[in-house]
Amino acid sequence: MPSGRVKWFSLEKGFGFISNDEGEDVYLAATSLPEGVATVKPGTKIEFSIIDSRKGPQAMSVHIVDAPVSLAENSRVNNDDLAAMIEDTIKILDKVGNGLRHGRHPSGSEAERLGRVLRGIAGQLEA
């Protein structure tokens, strides 16, 4: 099974990239993360299977082998960054609310992405 380390991952975007052991970049979708895992930190060692997608190699069936050492178990992001994330989320929620008032429900992928963002913010607030 191929392995590598997370280069970066964005909870808001719902994807990131892995640098596999051969140095190749591999696309990592949030939907490929293990159940209950919303995000991964850069440097996290993972194992995964690879499929060839139209965007290039994509990781599937991700298994976390070793997470990087953290100084604090649930460290908070910078307050200014968290405030900006909350403000952006409010704008997204306003858009969703207005759509619902007009009978438009968010698509499954939009709803899933919004749920991940809200869970990520909640985790930061609870930390």
Automatic annotation (TrEMBL):
<dbReference type="GO" id="GO:0003676">
    <property type="term" value="F:nucleic acid binding"/>
</dbReference>
<dbReference type="InterPro" id="IPR012340">
    <property type="entry name" value="NA-bd_OB-fold"/>
</dbReference>
<dbReference type="Pfam" id="PF00313">
    <property type="entry name" value="CSD"/>
</dbReference>
<protein>
    <submittedName>
        <fullName>Unannotated protein</fullName>
    </submittedName>
</protein>
<feature type="domain" description="CSD">
    <location>
        <begin position="1"/>
        <end position="64"/>
    </location>
</feature>
<dbReference type="InterPro" id="IPR011129">
    <property type="entry name" value="CSD"/>
</dbReference>
<dbReference type="InterPro" id="IPR002059">
    <property type="entry name" value="CSP_DNA-bd"/>
</dbReference>
